[in-house]
Write a structure and sequence with these properties.
This protein has 134 residues and is mainly α. Among the domains are: 45 residues; 26 residues. It is built from seven helices and no strands. The longest helix is centred in the first third of the chain and has 26 residues. The protein is elongated, with a radius of gyration of 38 Å. 0% of the residues are buried.
Length: 134
């Protein structure tokens, strides 16, 4: 019940007995019992009024089918043979993070070099206005 063991429940009862006292303990237990009974009755009435039990039995969302699908054992997959390139990519010598960082740096350097090449004037380009005037 609520994750409370028998030893913990005994300690709680002992603390309540000391706090309330033996004379008022029976009245307190009656009040707690009445409160629990009222709570269960209210919960039961709410369940009947809302019809939640009927909805759960009908299973309109297919939850039970989904649960069966999840719990169904998975067939063993076929073995895949990795090539040497695949093995090298999966376990680089210098570690995954370092290899990835170096690959990103190389890619950005290649992009920068391509951008610089595109921005540089070529020999076939028309001469600048300064050169034409002189």
């Amino acid at each position: 019940m609520f994750g409370i063991g028998s030893g913990e429940l005994l300690m709680i009862a002992l603390v309540v007995l000391i706090a309330v006292g033996p004379k008022r303990m029976p009245d307190l237990m009656k009040a707690v019992g009445k409160g629990m009974r009222d709570l269960r009755k209210a919960s039961s009435d709410l369940r009947k009024q809302s019809g939640i039990d009927d909805l759960m039995r009908e299973d309109p969302l297919g939850v039970r089918e989904l649960e069966r699908e999840i719990r169904r054992p998975v067939a063993p997959s076929r073995k895949v043979q990795l090539t040497a390139d695949d093995r090298a990519a999966e376990a680089p010598v210098e570690g995954v993070d370092l290899a990835l960082a170096r690959a990103r740096v190389a890619a950005s350097e290649n992009a920068d070099a391509a951008e610089n090449d595109a921005a540089a004037p070529t020999a076939d380009a028309a001469p600048a206005e300064d050169e034409v005037a002189s």
